[in-house]
Amino acid sequence: MPITRRAGLSKLLVTVLAVFIGAGCGSGPMDQDPAEPALFSALAGKYTSNQTVTVVPDRFWEADEESDSWSFRGWANLVVQIGRNGTTAPLHIRFIPDQPTSPMHFSALWDERSIGVDSVPAGDGIAVSISGDDLSPGLHRLKIGRVLAADDTAVRASLDCRFSAIEYGIGETHRLKPSDRVRLEFTRAFLEDRVTGISNQRHGGFLVSGRRDERVKLTVAEAADVSFAVASFFAPETRFSVEVDGVEYDARAGSKAVDLRFPVAPGDHELVLGTDGPEQGLFLWGEPSIRFRDSAPPGPVILVTLDTTRKDALAIYGGPAVVSPNIARLAETSTVFDQAWSTSPWTLPSHASLFTGLYPTRHGAGVSNTRLDISHPTLAEIAHDAGFRTAGFSGGALSASHWGLSRGFDSYRDPDRFETRGDRQTDAVKEWIGRHGSDPFFLFVNYFDPHAMYRAPAEFEELLGVGELRAKIADVPVWNRVSEGDPALWRAVVNGEVEPTTDAIAYLKAAYLSEVAFMDHQIGRLISTLVEAGLFDRSTIILVADHGEFLGEGGFFSHACRLDPELTEIPLLIKWPGQTTAERDHRLVSQVDLFATIVDALGVTASPRDGIPLRSPDLDSFGRRTKVFMEEHENRIHPLFENMTIAPHVYGLQERERRQLVWSGGSICYDRSAGGWRPAECEVGWQQRLDELAAVAALPVETEFSTGDVGLTDEMREHLEALGYIR
């Protein structure tokens, strides 16, 4: 994707003379060629490696150390990284069953293209071979699954595919060992998510293995301070060093990254980056940060997503004033958008739309894929390439790095288990701003608190009278357990198995709003941090919901499955740099527009996506459509609740005064009235609308839905199952 950088940041060039190796855990041959430099740009660092091949299992595989075997249910992938020099020799991969099985019928896909599978004689398993242009440098995936006599995905998912060994090699043969599962997962995260770490704090950059020195050339146009985040994994605390202009600087780091800082004068320099650790260790050199002393950095760009936040919950849209005073105060110097719409009624696809500027079927996350594909450059990657320090803070499990949303971030904080509460999230963000606020930065913060289960801290429940309302349902079966936070019974409510009562709905509304109030308080703390750091005035600050929430409308609770306004009409507020007065914007806008808006705020250009920059006063000059779009799809990680489902794939076409929902075989239309949206006669039939949708959606959508594993930790699986995301 073509990118034009902000001129004020393009003041350096960094090249590596001895290339960093990939995080291959010692599982592949090495071809070192120090004479051929690889780009290691502080403005556009990319994963590069001279290692011919790195192969790791993805998280669909289960490693059993006791039986020394690998298994999966349904289908799984091997993640394959081919080094930057490529290879002319074929790659052979063999799967050996834990007991002779004849015949073993499997299918295999290489980068989603079907390839042949060979049976190995004498019950020794199956094998695939990949060669030629299929082994281009970069990341590939080998998908393998059992072939059945009948096309029954439920049966396929129930079949254990167990292997005593997985072997691969280009020439020399290597074996993936179940006992290495932690290191292999560490490497998989680095290759797929582009961040990795042992804790929930993840970092991007480069990995080196063992004790080695790397020579780096650095040219800067003016005096600067340089820093690397460094960390040591699978090894004791390690000494990292940088030698520049005859002076050595060092730092010691364990699994928690620390900054190794040093000054450089204008001109050409050669840096020697050293790691003094054991061979079994993997050592992180995070993307370098360059701070020019005599240049004011460009204003920060801050994207805050308000998870599961209804538009009418906020005072700026007529909600209770007591719930969102801090957002209302921010709106006094911001632009509030009155006609903003989500692309999806749940977290993963809507965040992927924010990060890519694409509608869900185009980016595929939560639609045709279980994660955001690496082929779609993200906001964080573009910001990083433009010289901004990038950091992300995920508040909930469905925006974690596991789903591919972390690419391009120098650091990415995954949620604490399933959720990071808002106060802990704000503490972490404040600490990060205290360390890096003087750098140009792009910051993403996700507040997850309004998501079920609703259990705000006591002072915010008191604000909405939650205790009194909870007492009214203390003796009501099921609802009393829901009010105590029982996720299994909450799922029964969402499934339509529990009759709602007036008192129960009143309790849920108050409990939900108390969570919004708690989140609002944290946003106030975040804004105060920016003010105290002198960053607020020159910042671009965007507050937007990923989707809304049902609170009993139509007998529905939670979200997903449908495209009703309670789920898709969202709050959006933008504070532009230097803005001092409140403004209202009545134009029809979508989440996909925020990609172009943020790219514009970063001062760069990128290839067109589905959205347009919102700061332009004349959206018609960008070919502003009279409609925006939204989608909902059943997916392997996203089964639809039967009581709420319209169809497996539903599309929404939203106009200012009219909306139409479309699916294969039907549609329904609505007109806006003083009391909301009322059913209306459709002027265009469902088939014609679906044909029109081909211009903005990757139709037709074909997804594989099964009950198999989705590569999750047991704890994350338990939480997602309780909330109905997977079954």
Poorly predicted ranges: 1-49, 154-158, 703-709
Strand order in space, largest sheet: 15-28-27-29-25-30-33-26-34
Q: Give the strand content.
A: 25-35%
As a percent range, the share of helical residues equals 10-25%
Assign the CATH superfamily of the largest domain: Alkaline Phosphatase, subunit A
Largest sheet: 9 strands, mixed
Q: Averaged pLDDT, please?
A: 84
How are the SSEs placed, and which strands pair?
Layout (H helix, E strand, L loop, with lengths): L11 E5 L21 E2 L13 E5 L4 E3 L4 E5 L1 E8 L8 E7 L8 E5 L2 E3 L2 E3 L4 E6 L7 E9 L6 H6 L1 E11 L1 E5 L4 H13 L7 E3 L1 E5 L2 E9 L3 E10 L4 E7 L2 E7 L4 E7 L2 E10 L5 E5 L2 E4 L8 E6 L18 H7 L3 E7 L5 H10 L3 H4 L15 H7 L3 E5 L17 E3 L8 H15 L4 E7 L10 H7 L1 H7 L6 H5 L3 H8 L7 H31 L7 E6 L4 E2 L5 E2 L6 H4 L3 E4 L7 E8 L2 H10 L25 E6 L15 E6 L3 E6 L2 E8 L2 E5 L5 H8 L20 H9 L5
Parallel strand pairs: 25-29, 25-30, 26-34, 27-28, 27-29
Antiparallel strand pairs: 1-2, 1-17, 3-6, 4-5, 5-13, 6-12, 7-11, 7-13, 8-9, 8-12, 10-11, 13-14, 15-28, 16-23, 17-22, 18-21, 18-23, 18-24, 19-20, 19-22, 26-33, 30-33, 31-32, 35-36, 36-37, 37-38, 38-39
Explain what this protein looks like in three dimensions:
The chain is α+β, with helices and mostly antiparallel strands. It folds into three domains: 1-45 and 206-293, GOLD domain (Jelly Rolls, Sandwich); 48-193, Sandwich (Immunoglobulin-like), CATH 2.60.40; 301-722, 3-Layer(aba) Sandwich (Alkaline Phosphatase, subunit A). 21% of the residues lie in helices and 31% in strands. The protein is built from 16 helices and 39 strands. The strands form seven sheets. A nine-stranded mixed β-sheet has the order 15-28-27-29-25-30-33-26-34, sandwiched between helices. Strands 4, 5, 7, 10, 11, 13 and 14 form a seven-stranded antiparallel β-sheet that branches. The longest helix has 31 residues, at 502-532. The chain is globular. The two termini are 38 Å apart. The model is unreliable at 1-49, 154-158 and 703-709 (pLDDT under 50).
